[in-house]
Structure formats: structure tokens, C-alpha cells
Design a protein that fits this description.
2 domains, ATP Synthase, domain 1, 134 residues, 5-stranded antiparallel sheet, binds adenosine-5'-triphosphate
Length: 134
Amino acid sequence: MGKIFLEIITPDRVVVSREVDMVVVPGVEGEFGVLEDHVAFLSGVVPGELRYTVNGKTEYCAVMEGFAEVSNNKVSILVDAAERAEEIDVERAKRALERAKERLEKKEGVDIARAEAAFRRAMARLKVAEKVRG
Ligand code: ATP
């Protein structure tokens, strides 16, 4: 199988930069997969699980909001934040989830959109962390 180059970049750091066999990205219109010779493509990215396969082994990342660009066998993911599954602090994500839930239950005086976004980020991290911790 032909390789594609995957880059996951945040304002702080390069999270992944390597050749892979395939990538599955959480896009605004659902997950999409990229293999060699994919057509050029631009999509929004939503908080969720990004996975890629290298020599039959699948690795997982949590990605937050941003964009994906596919062009010339390169996938560039530009997101607010991203972590490889092993880097995720599960307790921190649980605390963030609890905070978001409390805010959403309170309703009054709460920025609902912001609380919902925090909720989705925490859920994405917990889902991805489970992949390596069971
Ligand atoms: P929190 O309220 O815990 O800060 P958040 O969703 O507001 O969560 P972000 O704004 O998405 O956090 O991320 C800020 C920085 O913290 C980023 O560098 C991100 O990679 C890192 N980060 C956030 N949550 C975690 C986590 N559970 N484990 C590891 N890194 C995290």
C-alpha cells in the first residue's frame, strides 16, 4: 500500500508528523478516511478520534476543532489542541466533563455553547484514552 504523510499541528506543537498507510478523521460531516491518491479535499474537524495505521498497527489521537486538508498524498490537520492517546490525562478530562455537565444543568448565567464545546472535548479525550487503557 502506498504511503501518505500525516501532520497534526496545534498552535503549540507538532503532535504527529510521519508517513502512514491510512488516516480516519472526525470531519464536520462525519468520519472520512484517506488512502493514497485521495482527491484534494478540505473539511472542518470536530472534537473526536483520529486514527491512523502504520504497517498494520493502528494509533489513536484526540483532536479538537480545526481543519483538515488533503492534497498530494499529504493530510494536514490544524486543530486547537490534540493529544496522542497515551498523553491524555484521564482524570483531567473527567474533571472537565463534570464541570461542563454542571454548567449545562445550571443553564442560567451559563454560556451553553461554550459548556457544550468543553463537554465534547472531554468526551473525545475520554473515548480516545479508552483505546489504549481499556
Ligand atoms: P481543561 O478544562 O482541562 O483545560 P480544555 O478542553 O479546556 O480542558 P483545551 O483548551 O482543549 O482544554 O486544551 C488546552 C491544552 O491542554 C492543550 O495543549 C491540550 O492538549 C491540553 N489538554 C487539555 N486536556 C487534556 C487532557 N485531559 N490530557 C492531556 N492534555 C490535555
